[in-house]
Amino acid sequence: MQYKRILLKLSGEALMGSKTHGIDPVRIQEYAKEIKVAVEKGVEIALVIGGGNIFRGVAGASNGIDRVQGDYMGMLATVINGLALQSAIEKEGVQTRLQTAIKMEQIAEPYIKRKAVRHLEKGRVVIFSGGTGNPFFTTDTAAVLRAAEINADVILKGTRVDGIYTADPEKDKNAKKYEHITYKDVMSKGLKIMDMTAFALSEDNNLPIIVFDMNTPGNLIKLLSGEAIGTRVESD
């Protein structure tokens, strides 16, 4: 495998599958099977999951909910998704640990970097939920933060699109895909595949990001094996 330790970032919307909200049990089990294969190949996997399939703080704020309260509601949504993902992965016979940025000791461990790394070394999948534990930060930023803390080799952003394009490929048929792009170009062009804080933090820590289609079976293993899948974002 090309990478020993990865941080896999999944959006909450990815868990919806064919549904309009909530969690699609078929889709989440497909992800669990992909993760199992990677673990069996010796890859250490940490996960960060969004909460947009349940609640978005920004959307809540636009509907009159206090922004800080809304962001905390979004953090709780990521914990729900983390529990669902944990259940699906363990159903495949893979040991997991769920850690939260906000203490919820009855259902998960509090986030402790050393414990997380030890779990990874023992072959357990570690799911980081609750974002950064602070309002005004997205789960993309949380993913980069955790990746830097655990010394991940790469951040893999699993989406329903096979990379970064010049425009939204679902809306613009003339959009062209980037095979490689720098952090600076992503930020200067305003490409919104992740938020700018996340890209800036990645650049500061020299952490490459690969954006790829997680919904195509086998893509995760192909990527980990070194195949050129998706779009790679890195320094000049």
* Overall pLDDT score: 93
Name the strands of the widest sheet in spatial order: 4-3-5-2-1-6-10-11-9
Kindly give the count of domains: 1
Structural class: alpha/beta
In total, the number of strands is 11
Please identify the oligomeric state.
single chain
**Termini distance?**
25 Å
Q: What is the helix content?
A: 25-40%
Please work out how many helical segments DSSP would assign: 8
Low-confidence stretches: none
* Strand coverage percent: 15-25%
The ordered H/E elements are EHEHHEEHEHEEEEHHEHE
Question: What is the secondary structure topology, with strand pairs?
Answer:
Elements: E1 5-10, H1 25-40, E2 44-49, H2 57-62, H3 67-91, E3 96-100, E4 109-110, H4 113-121, E5 125-129, H5 139-149, E6 154-159, E7 164-165, E8 177-178, E9 180-182, H6 183-189, H7 196-204, E10 209-213, H8 219-224, E11 231-234
Parallel strand pairs: 1-2, 1-6, 2-5, 3-4, 3-5, 6-10, 9-11
Antiparallel strand pairs: 7-8, 10-11
Helix pairs in contact: 1-3, 5-7
Q: Quick gist of this model?
A:
This protein is α/β, with parallel strands linked by helices. Helix content is 38%, strand content 19%.
Question: What can you see in these coordinates?
Answer:
The protein is α/β, with parallel strands linked by helices and 236 residues long. It has a single domain (5-234), classed as Acetylglutamate kinase-like (Carbamate kinase, 3-Layer(aba) Sandwich), CATH 3.40.1160. The chain contains eight helices and eleven strands. It has helices spanning 25-40, 57-62, 67-91, 113-121, 139-149, 183-189, 196-204, 219-224; strands at residues 5-10, 44-49, 96-100, 109-110, 125-129, 154-159, 164-165, 177-178, 180-182, 209-213, 231-234. The strands form two sheets. It has a nine-stranded mixed beta sheet with strand order 4-3-5-2-1-6-10-11-9, with helices on both faces. Strands 7-8 form a two-stranded antiparallel ribbon. α1 links the parallel β1 (5-10) and β2. The mean pLDDT is 93.
